[in-house]
Amino acid sequence: MDGPFAGYRPRVSAEPRPAAQASDEGPLAAAVHGLAEAGGEVVDATREAAEAVKRQGDTVAEAAQQAMEVTAQAAEVAETHAAVSTGARLGFFLDGLLHALMGWAGLQLVWWGRSSSTADESGALIRIAGSLGGRAVLWVAFAGFAVVTVWNLARGITGRHCRTRMKRFEHAADGIAYATVAWSAAAFAIGAGQTSRQSTVSMTRTMLALPGGVLLVVGTGLAVVGVGAFSIWSGVSRDFLVDLATRPGRVVVAVGILGFVARGIVYGVVGALFVAAAVTHDVRQSTGIDGALHVMQGVPGGEAMLTTLSVGLIAFGIYLMTRARHLLA
């Protein structure tokens, strides 16, 4: 090149050009932008899912609340219905008869060394089934016990005349207990019943065969002991009087105290036999009320103890018959 710029050469920079830099960063920026958009979509989807779960939870909670209200209303109607009250009176009276027969069987063990039936509810049911018109009586008993089941469960749900939560729990537990007695009455009415000893041994064998069966049987035994302890407390504290519409005379109060304490002691021995069966893995030791009375007969001073407890079971039966008359409806 001629002229003053002859021999001039432009200086070339070693730094990358801006255009090249932009072209190099373009894919990375696009990827970051895409990830951000995807993350936003995930967050939105998660938020929508959480809101849907919350709506479902609110719906379930509302349905559960409505079900509880309907159940409470039905329980209140059932508890206060005249037919249910009448059926409950019948059930309590018949249960009193069963306990009186149990106590009589215990006295037979003391006086004659044997009894005509097992000293438990199944023995009493067998005795009724063998009498004239016994099957019909058992069906009546089934109806009465079924109504008492409904009455107790309803009172446990509504809390009517229950001063404490423990009282509501007591009614609920009694409802379950009367359901089993109603089942037994129906079974003996059709000729398919088992003695309490047989059913208790069978139940214990089944529980021991389960994983953790020893703990399960021990827990069952402790629960029965707890029921016995509560029965003793009810007798000593005279808590049972709150279940009566009118306060009875001193004789009935004394009978009730004796009955509840005796029943509590018997239940305590029954629970101890469950624990013994679990520890020794011998299901034959879990023999129910009849087995408990036989065990007490064999200890020192057992005959006197068995006599007292048998009289106590008869006393508890008399209280139940009194409760049938003075039912707090």
Distance between the termini: 125 Å
What class would the helix/strand composition place it in? mainly alpha
Q: How many domains make up the 3D coordinates?
A: 1
The rough form would be described as elongated
Total helix count? 10
Order of helices and strands: HHHHHHHHHH
Q: Uncertain regions: pLDDT < 50 for 5+ in a row? A: 19-24
Average pLDDT, to the nearest integer?
79
Structure description:
The longest helix is centred in the N-terminal third of the chain and has 63 residues. This protein starts with 17 loop residues before the first helix and ends with a helix. It is elongated. It contains ten helices and no strands. Helix 9 runs antiparallel to helix 10. It has one domain. About 0% of the residues have low confidence. With about 325 residues, the protein is mostly helical.
Give the SSE layout.
Layout: H1 18-80, H2 82-112, H3 121-129, H4 134-158, H5 165-189, H6 196-208, H7 213-237, H8 250-280, H9 288-297, H10 302-325
Q: What's the quick description here?
A:
The protein is mostly helical.
Task: Write out key terms for the chains shown.
elongated, 78% helix, 329 residues, mainly alpha
